Amino acid sequence: MRQILKCVRQYKRDFILAPVVVILEAVCELLLVVTIGKFIDALTAAASMQTIYQFGVRLLVLAAASLVLGTASGLVAVRGSAGLAKNLRNTMFQRFQTFSFENIDHFSTDSLVTRMTTDITNVQQAFMMILRIATKSPISLICALFMAFYINWKIGLIYVVVIPLLAIGLFSIAKVTLPIFKRVFKTYDRLNRIVRENLHGIRVVKSFVREEHETEKFCSVSQEIKQDFTKAEKTLAFNSPMMQVAVYACLILISWFSAKAIVRTASGVVVGGISMTTGDLQNLLSYSLMILMALMMLSMVCVMVMMARESIGRISEVLEEKVTMENPEQPETTVPNGDIVFRNVGFSYVGDKDKLCLSGVDLHIRSGETIGVIGGTGAGKSTLVQLIPRLYDATEGVVEVGGRDVR
Q: Model pTM?
């Protein structure tokens, strides 16, 4: 995560400003609810056009402020998250330039493409939701709970019962979907590999009439992705009805108990020193929607963060990968001649001296000389050639070009 946050750089101001604007937006929305409740009580006590004008102006100002702050928070959050994604792409691309072939083989080209596209997109969306929704929802939740208990602590206990039940349900959904998303990203790597191999070798595929076989390979992997996402979405589908049941249950219970309290208050009977008005009922209903909407938004953020957590891990692996091939402090930048010398060279792709694909190679190619390297498939012809420009380092021995060690 630390590697990801380092890429914020010039967008640090947006990452700081976005939560501040979101908090102000949440405060304006809370004041709107409180003002509407007072407006209803004022009309019930003594209806007049002056009262309507006074509260109408307050509501317009608060609504306009909420609109402006909401728009500003959205713009700042999008700019910050998109900027982070841009810096991540640039950093990863620059990192790729320093990788040796051994580093690339460690990840595979297909996996690196997925990490630089799909994974970074997931991180961008997650940070945008964190800057807005994950900041606003907890504040709205806490403020609404406080105000609900302030109006009538007994009715506020309804939330104390409903919220833990919802939290358990959301946690259960997250526990089921997280392993699926982890599996999907690995399947994406396979899908990219199949597409890349097919496009690079399309002439061979057509020459040997293997189109049907390649189509079956692609459809098989595509079907796996479809099945995984279908399973995840089926699980996530329980989120909406669960939230709706909680919302309507709260509304029914609050309306029932609040109506009794309002009737008793109107009759002059105050139980436990707690009185209620129609405006209080309106506020409680609004707080119910705020609380449950905040929980729903938090559940969406949790799902997005779960997807992004796996992506962050995959991106961090690339950024923290130790480069296996580096230049010395004062590298040679010119080649005096084309002499190539192999001195007892051995090479292993896994760095194991017991698993060499080339061993004991002694070879001298004079400058200007043309030779042919002949051998069967897998004999090591390409490996031999790749050692000359130092695409790989020899596991044993020395390779010289122009009389200098290529390292």
A: 0.69
